[in-house]
Each structure stands twice: as C-alpha cells, then as structure tokens.
Request: fold
Amino acid sequence: MNWKAVLVTVAAAVTMASGVAFAGKPVLNVGTEGVYAPFTFKDKDGKLTGYDIEVLREAGKRAGFEVNYVPTPWDSMFLGLESKKFDAIANQISKNPQREKKFLFSDNSYLISGAQLIVRGDKHNVNSLEDLRGLKVGTGAGSNYSKILEEANKNKQFEIKYYDGNFTTVLQDIVTGRLDATLNDRLTVGYNIKQLKLNVKPVGKPVDLVPSYFVFRQDAEGQRLKKLVDEGLKTLKKDGTLAKLSVKWFGADYTR
Reply:
C-alpha cells in the first residue's frame, strides 16, 4: 500500500522506496510532472518547487501529513494513479465529465486560472477561437485545453498538433513559426514570458475560467486521503496562506 505511517524510533528508521523517511506522519505519494512551471518544476538547484508543490506541502503541515512527489509524464499521470503508483495528483488538474466518472477531486479548489489563446508577439490577427481558421495550433495531448480546441474545431477549420511533456516546447515552436497559437493557462504563459524572455503573448479574453483541484482514486483509500487534504486546504484558505502563495507565484490572488 502506498499510504504508510512511517514511525522512526531511536533504534531504527524506516526508509521508504523513495529513499525518504518521515517521522511519525502519514506520507502522501503524489504524481506530478515536474516540468510545468510555475506549478510543478525543478529550480536551478534541481529541487522540485512551484505553486502546486508548495500548496500541498503547506496543506500537509496543517493536516499532519508529509508529501513524497513522484515525477511522472503527463500522458501517464492518470494511469499511474489508477495503478497505485501514487496516491494523488498535483498538476493543475481541472474537472471534466470523463475524469469525474473515474476519480475523486478535492472539495476545495486551490486556484482559478483562465484558458487563453497565446500567439507570437508580432501576431495581431488572432483574438478568439474563431480567428484560428487555417492556422496550426499546438496543445498538450489529453489536456483540458485540447478538449476546448477539439470542441471548437469540429468542422476542421484549423490544424491541431499534439505535444507530450514540456509546455515550453509549444511556446518555442510558436516563436519559431512552427505553430501559430496555443491555448493554455494565462498564468503559466505569464511566468514563462518573464522567466524565458520568449516572444509570445496572451490575446483576447479568457476562453474559460478553470478551477484546479487535487485528484485521488475513487476508492475507500482515496476518500480518506481526500478528506485529509481538504482539511489542510480549508485551513490554508482560512489563515490566508493560500492567497499569499498565489500572490507570490502569480502577482495576485487567483484563489477565489
């Protein structure tokens, strides 16, 4: 079982498969990409960080659990949860009917982002989904953004190119002209523009406002873990920590 209460005594320490031992607290193994800044990524020292990472760690401090992150490619994230490779997902996940049939979501969202079109800095003729006619649009395979694009493209008015993995590659392909646009979180794009100095920009109004949740298996264990995480999130909202983390990473409170 992935969910373990690891007890450390003076005589012995129990070390988990990840090589980390946590004294006297249950450990939540969490799948995350680790390449999706500013939500989950490695800093210059190789340490996993980001908004999602910090929120769940702080929730653990309030609710009495530790977090062990399991780096996982996006295209195998939900399969990893189903197969019990880990107990939960922290990766800016939004709800959709297909996911809600198979998984549990935290009662509390921890961020409300906006799906927005992104183009190269010198492009001025795209401001809405209707303006994508005849263009090449990149998106992450299986993402909620791909679902929005597919719905808008029922009449095959534009070409969709699917990517697995690093979102930065999509932005770089827009800069080089391999793509004309993408649809993604405005917060992610703003962070990448600031950090990587990429010549891209968000355009038009947000296509959709999307709350983000932590995700669990739809079983008794998942129910227990969801309750524990919700307890931590509720406290983070009440004591103002969640809003402070949003301001730290995005410059404003996007938690409500």
